[in-house]
Write a structure and sequence with these properties.
Helix content is 10%, strand content 45%. It contains one helix and nine strands, in the order ββββββαβββ. It has a seven-stranded antiparallel sheet with strand order 2-1-7-8-9-6-3. Strands 4-5 form a two-stranded antiparallel ribbon. Strand 7 and strand 8 form a beta hairpin. The radius of gyration is 18 Å and the shape is globular.
Length: 144
């Protein structure tokens, strides 16, 4: 087990089928925000008029945000992905993997689509980070 909870040694790789068939190691994350998966709500509930609660499982998409420094070379991966979709007028599907050495955890990112693309960094005192969202069919912990 690692001695710290640093995310500085984490690894995120993405393959975009038909564009980057070989997984690309994403690098150059924002100082305070590298990548994160949004909370999911896979259970739908409904309260009957008699006060009894019913519930059911419903599959949900997994939103996954990646935030990169303005000068990250990995911005090109997302810009090329967006341009390829615009040119083809078609979507490209991504697969990914994450490794977090601090906790020895591995995650599989399955069937993802680029659903949010920031086209350029904000210009303030220094150029600002760019945020991208990939919506995956599933994000699951992988065996070590």
């Amino acid at each position: 087990m690692a001695k710290t909870l640093t995310s500085a040694n984490s690894a995120l790789a993405l393959a975009i089928l038909g564009l980057y068939n070989t997984p690309q190691l994403i690098q150059g994350y924002s100082t305070d925000d590298a990548f994160t998966a949004s909370d999911i709500s896979p259970v739908e509930t409904a309260m009957g008029v008699d006060g009894l609660l019913s519930a059911g499982y419903t599959p949900v998409p997994y939103a996954f945000d990646i935030t990169l420094q303005a000068d990250s070379l990995s911005n090109d991966v997302f810009d090329n992905w967006m341009e390829a979709m615009r040119s083809a007028r078609e979507v490209y599907v991504a697969q990914g993997s994450i490794y977090l050495p601090s906790t020895q955890a591995k995650y599989a990112l399955n069937k993802g689509f680029l659903t949010s693309h920031n086209p350029m960094p904000g210009a303030k005192k220094i150029l600002q980070p760019r945020k991208f969202t990939i919506t995956f069919e599933s994000i699951s912990k992988a065996p070590n």
